[in-house]
Amino acid sequence: MAKSEWRIAGEWQQTARRLKTLDIPLLLTTLLLMGVGLLSLYSATYQWAPELFRRQLLWLGLGLTGMATLALIDPAVWMRHWRWLYALNLVMLLMVDLIGAERKGAQRWLELPGGFQVQPSEFAKLLLILTLASLFARMGASVRTPRGFLISLLHAALPALLVFKQPDLGTSIVLGALWFGMVYLAGAPLRWLALVALAGVFAFGAMWHWNLLKDYQKARLVSFLNPEADPQQSGYHILQARIAIGSGQLTGKGYLHGTQKNLRYIPEQHTDFIFVVIGEEGGFLGAVGFLALYGFFLYRVWRVMVSASQEFYRLMAGGILVFFLFHLMTNVGMTLGLFPVVGIPLPFVSLGGSMLITTCAAVGFLLGARLREQPFQI
Hints:
It is a single chain. By secondary structure, the chain is an all-alpha fold. Helices cover 70% and strands 3% of the residues. It has 15 helices and three strands. A hairpin with a 5-residue loop joins strand 2 and strand 3.
């Protein structure tokens, strides 16, 4: 047998060994969540904007292709090029500030040919996870020093400030949560994290006092405490969401038969408030079933983190876990009136190509890390 044939045979054997470590439960759960997302999005849009669903299918195809491609690449490659990734993150966010498209009073999008738009702040979440994981893996124990801790804080603060300027309070909060969770996983002292949290409270008070927050952002926070005070404006989202979810009762009104949804009483029912569609049409059982499916998905991400043999893999998976967990808790929480409305989408479910590609890429990184680990028990 020629050397080239031996090499090809060896590559096939190596690929077969790696496929044995493919996290099938994680992959299947991801596909199930995507299926629930497509069903929910179709129900939310088929009457008034069916083209949105068709466009989401195109983004999904692109996302699945990216997920498969990234799964075949060793995530350690990105660790070696973290500086370029960080620069790319800042450049994209600066481009939004310079030439970005504006919608509903916010400048968050870059125009693409064919009428498509991308939202770099969604990509910024995953890029921050990769670069922070690289930074912490390289710093090692120095993250427990004041200098290392402050360097990591500045690393996350620059993209967060650029996103806040768009303005996008919700995404800037996500970036802060990602840093907080990852620096904790990296071993930073809890007392330092407590000081940062306290400083954040004072900073928020200062922004409120000096009118650095937009009026609609203030109104959303006030309506969270008392939505009945302004039921036609700032409190409308929360009140209509409560009515819709409550009307679903135990088993729901049935797929495509949500009354509040069909009459479009629910603002942003295809994006930030799409969980209302699940709650109204699936009822309590449907909502709990969806959350249980999501919980199993998060468990699989946690398994990737705790079984990682390399520090970069562990921190990357930990950051992705924080990403999905924070989005799920905040989105469902604001839908139920447990958190203020801050405009955070529900991964795999809410409309949005940039978010869908980001979540697919995140799963691709997780699968790529698992393919390079030893098999473990399911």
